[in-house]
Design goal:
mainly alpha, Four Helix Bundle (Hemerythrin (Met), subunit A), 8 helices, 2 strands, 3% strand
Length: 168
């Protein structure tokens, strides 16, 4: 398997788990929070998509799907357009409410942009420094693995909450 193939497989696993996790959930179920300070399924899916969109668009030199495809307007959140959810307060988490179709629609378009970019990279590209604000500087390979890791953690958290919602 080549470099882009392995990365496409990893991002594809996120997509498959995401769809299975939120399929057929109601707005109420997607918005359920274990306590007032925890994240909802909707917030987790929105956040992981925002991170993927933000980070991949940055390294690819592309506009984010969030703005380029009108998702920021469709979601209509009262947050800065650049917001990815990092450091959100309980109130900001509560404000992220969306139906499954919105969440999967935004994720799927972000996933397609990611796959398009991954199809262009080679093993040699993975050593390119993409962020010098860290010590050591972050390479493309490290950034992509970081996004996959973040996505898998958050989609796993969402799947766990779904199990709790269904058991109630």
């Amino acid at each position: 398997m080549d470099t882009s193939g392995i990365l496409e497989d990893a991002f594809g696993r996120v997509r498959g788990t995401l769809h299975r996790t939120i399929d057929a959930l109601t707005l109420e179920q997607l918005s359920f929070r274990l306590d007032p300070d925890s994240n909802s399924i909707a917030w987790l899916i929105w956040h992981l998509t925002r991170i993927q969109d933000d980070h991949v668009a940055d390294v690819a030199g592309l506009e984010q799907v969030w703005t380029a495809k009108g998702w920021a307007d469709r979601f209509g959140l009262r947050l800065p357009v650049s917001d990815t959810g990092y450091g959100h307060t309980s109130e900001e988490v509560e404000a992220v409410r969306a139906r499954a179709e919105m969440l999967t629609g935004y994720y799927d378009e972000t996933h397609e942009q990611t796959l398009h970019y991954l199809g262009r990279i080679t093993a040699g590209d993975l050593d390119r420094v993409v962020d010098e604000s860290w010590d050591p500087p972050v390479t493309l390979g490290v950034r992509l693995v970081s996004v996959i890791n973040d996505n898998l953690q958050h989609v796993g958290q969402a799947a766990y909450i779904r199990g709790i919602v269904e058991a109630r």
